[in-house]
Amino acid sequence: MAIQFILASASPRRLQLLQQIGIAPDQTISADIDETSRMAELPDKYALRMAEAKASVIAKKYPDAIVLAADTVVAAGRRILPKAEDEATARKCLKLLSGRRHRVYTAVCVNKKSRVVMTAVRFNRLDDKTIDRYIASGEWRGKAGGYAIQGLAESFIPWISGSYSNVVGLPLAETAHLLKVSGFAW
Q1: 186 inside domain
Q2: Is the pLDDT of residue 1 over 70?
Q3: How many domains does the chain have?
Q4: Catalytic one among 26, 64, 71, 128?
Q5: Which of 12, 23, 122, 142 has the most Cβ atoms closer than 10 angstroms to its Cβ?
């Protein structure tokens, strides 16, 4: 009997990225966890704690499955930017990122094996009209840091250093490696 593979995420982007490299999970299940950051918690440590907590919740329900969980964080310095759920939050994030470099961390956890990947991203300076246009697109909804690199916001970004798929939400090379060492064959 084949081992079941579960993606512990409700993110359509993570599912699409896995499919891009020929991987289709048997199930996608969102892990319901408290995602509150701790006082003075560093962005990379937060992402790792979230990914491992998500994986743990699902692995307890499916102990014989291979479980993949991930968490992506956009950070300006030591500051963790929120997922933009409203226009005011998205606008605040975009103004903060405008004209500066920031980091995107994604922690990936596969059956207790974890890895954190960091990508540096530079934004052009964004004027109010550009921010207004982006806000009107709605593309920012639910996105860490208030933007999606795989859409209109790519026009704001003249430079990245690191994994592009990490900024989208799942570093594919590292994820494929973790799956392979966990015994997942595709």
Answers
A1: no
A2: no
A3: 1
A4: 71
A5: 23
User: What domain range is 35 assigned to?
Assistant: 5-181
**What is the enclosing helix (H) or strand (E) of 5?**
strand 5-7
- Cα separation of 27 and 171, whole Å? 20
Dump strand ranges (E) for 29-182. 66-76, 79-80, 101-110, 113-122, 159-161
Q: Per residue in 6-51, pLDDT tens?
A: 999 988 999 999 999 999 999 999 998 999 999 999 999 999 999 9
In this structure, the strands spanning 101-110 and 5-7 are: unpaired
130 lies in some domain: yes
**CATH of residue 142:** 3.90.950.10
The DSSP bridge pattern shows strands 66-76 and 101-110 to be antiparallel
d(CA 118, CA 134): 25
Q: What is the pLDDT of residues 38-90, one digit of tens each?
A: 999 999 999 999 999 999 999 999 999 999 999 999 999 999 999 999 999 99
Q: Is residue 25 part of a domain?
A: yes
SS3 of 59-91: the string is: HHHCCCCEEEEEEEEEEECCEECCECCCHHHHH
Residue 71 catalytic?
Answer: yes
In a domain, 119, yes or no: yes
**Contact partners, residue 43, CB within 8 Å, separation at least 6:** 73, 75, 78, 79, 80, 103, 105
